[in-house]
Amino acid sequence: MSDHTLKFDIKDLDFFYEDFQALKNIQMEIKTNEITAFIGPSGCGKSTFLRALNRMNDLIEGTRVEGKIYLDGEDVYDKIDAITLRSRVGMVFQKPNPFPMSVYDNIAYGPRLNGIKKKSILNEIVERSLRQAAVWDECKDKLKQNALSFSGGQQQRICIARALAVEPEVLLMDEPTSALDPISTLKIEDLITELKKDYTIIIVTHNMQQAARISDKTAFFLLGELLEFDTTETIFSNPKNKKTEDYITGRFG
Ligand SMILES: Nc1ncnc2c1ncn2[C@@H]1O[C@H](COP(=O)(O)OP(=O)(O)OP(=O)(O)O)[C@@H](O)[C@H]1O
Fold first, then answer.
1. Angle between helices 152-164 and 182-195 (to 10 degrees)
2. How far is the CA of 56 from the centre of ligand 1 (A)?
3. Which protein residue's CA is at the shortest distance from atom 14 of ligand 1?
4. What parts of the sequence cross the membrane (predicted)?
């Protein structure tokens, strides 16, 4: 019987940029409605792995994947086309990157691409998505204003709303708070915790406190290998690998 709590199942994953192997034999199970944090020193492969999950690396020439990634039991490199996959697995980037258009058009962009034209339905999606991303109150009277005129923290929440507008199942977040001040960071962390009810969330972070605060599971990567993967509590209180302990206590990285 298939395991319904399992969202992603990654088996024997290797990843190459030309001759350079950036990921080595990764095995990982990512559970539905959990927050999984990827930690590890710069260049260890966290972003590469994140981008492998929705095939964003396909856009980089000379890359190659070996092994399997299953989403709800389906092989993402064989059984799901990249466009469908990316609508099921949304992404939020490190730097807020709203399109240079109104808040409304940013959020309606994906739904319109999916063929939704009716104004009343688009209005509903825009409001629901901005509410879910906890930025509705700040935007509701300025929906026609250019998204780039908002603060960095607001822009990042607008980008999260844009990702949510197409109702993905999974949200990949690559250091979503690294460009933000502490207050905006806490707002986004609260938001991520709130979104967990409806989404499976995977977040890359350099902020150990952030991983400890919000994630259920933590994966520690080093030089392309998954060194340790466990409950966040275990990783931060009782890691099995000495290198994990050295990293989380700030002895290197
Ligand atoms: N487009 C690319 N072409 C060639 N090599 C790349 C490319 N992107 C990343 N790499 C290499 O792959 C390795 C992993 O990079 P990746 O960006 O996944 O690491 P990371 O852990 O996310 O780092 P950071 O924390 O600094 O963002 C690094 O050695 C990097 O130089």
1. 20
2. 13
3. 45
4. none
Domains contained in the chain, number: 1
| Cα radius of gyration (the chain) | 18
The pTM (predicted TM-score) of the whole model is 0.93
Residue 1 falls inside a structural domain:
no
Domain assignment present for 178: yes
The number of residues making up the chain comes to: 253
Nearest residue by C-alpha to atom 27 in ligand 1: 42
**Which amino acid is located at 202 in the chain?**
I
Which of 47, 56, 63, 206 is the pocket-test mutation for ligand 1 (most atoms within 8 Å of CB)? 47
User: Distance (Å, rounded) from C-alpha 242 to C-alpha 95?
Assistant: 33
The strand pairing partners of 229, in sequence order, are 219
CATH for 43: 3.40.50.300
Give the ipTM of the model, two decimals please: 0.97
The CA-based dihedral angle spanning residues 239, 190, 158, 150, taken in that order and rounded to the nearest 10 degrees? -110
Helix, strand or coil, per DSSP, at residue 193: helix
Q: How far apart are CA 65 and CA 44, in angstroms?
A: 17
82-112 residue pLDDT tens: 989 999 999 999 899 999 999 999 999 999 9
> What is the extent of the structural domain holding 79?
6-249
Residue 163 included in any domain: yes
Check if 43 has its Cβ closer than 6 Å to any atom of ligand 1: yes
- Considering the domain boundaries, does residue 119 fall inside one? yes
pLDDT digits (tens, 9 = 90+) for 213-237: 999 999 999 999 999 999 999 999 9
Tokens describing residue 233 = 């509590």
- Say yes or no: CB of residue 73 within 6 Å of ligand 1: no
